Q: What sequence folds into this?
């Protein structure tokens, strides 16, 4: 309860306007003499105080879906540059769609490689975990994870073509208040020349 509201209630209780509850009417309240007062009130005001509490506001957007059939979780991925020269860096940005509180996984798949472990994982609150995946074309330089976006910075280290995948695993709140785990991904192609 805010301090100012508490002080008002205490003052009203002291003056006899509130007796044991947050609401009263003029038939319940009787005037009480105030020590040192020179006049008596001629009318008692009817006072009703309503105190409501609200659910805490969530700082992050929480997608709410009507039914599971409405789900289409994925990661929208954009890259600052597709064609790189050796030594250049590139920012790869991902936005989770229909995925809340995501953990993001960076997966680099050089041409001809179908499956590769993740190179780096970053959480929605920017906790970073390096992985075992590697590429001969680009290397992971940095990552920044937020609830609504992730940015991976990569550096070109060898000629070739690589696919950059960003996978997100998180949750989705359904209309009935329950949550379910969801995952989605998106990818871009990067070409490194000399």
A:
């Amino acid at each position: 309860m805010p301090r100012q509201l508490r002080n008002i209630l205490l003052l009203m209780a002291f003056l006899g306007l509130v007796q044991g509850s947050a609401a009263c009417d003029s038939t319940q309240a009787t005037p009480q003499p105030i020590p040192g007062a020179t006049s008596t009130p001629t009318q008692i005001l009817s006072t009703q105080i309503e105190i409501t509490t609200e659910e805490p506001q969530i700082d992050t957007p929480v997608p709410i879906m009507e039914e599971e059939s409405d789900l289409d979780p994925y990661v929208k991925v954009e890259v600052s540059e597709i064609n790189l020269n050796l030594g250049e860096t590139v920012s790869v940005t991902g936005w989770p769609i229909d995925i809340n509180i995501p953990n993001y996984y960076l997966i680099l798949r050089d041409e001809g490689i179908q499956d590769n472990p993740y190179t780096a994982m970053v959480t929605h609150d920017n906790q970073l975990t390096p992985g075992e995946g590697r590429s001969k074309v680009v290397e992971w330089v940095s990552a920044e994870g937020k609830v609504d976006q992730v940015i991976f910075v990569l550096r070109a280290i060898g000629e070739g073509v690589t696919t950059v995948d960003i996978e997100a695993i998180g949750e989705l709140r359904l209309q009935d208040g329950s949550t379910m785990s969801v995952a989605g991904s998106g990818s871009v192609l990067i070409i490194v020349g000399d």
Notes: Residues 66-193 form a domain with the Immunoglobulin-like fold (CATH 2.60.40.10). Confidence is low (pLDDT under 50) at residues 17-29, 39-58. The CA atoms of residues 66 and 176 lie 8 Å apart.
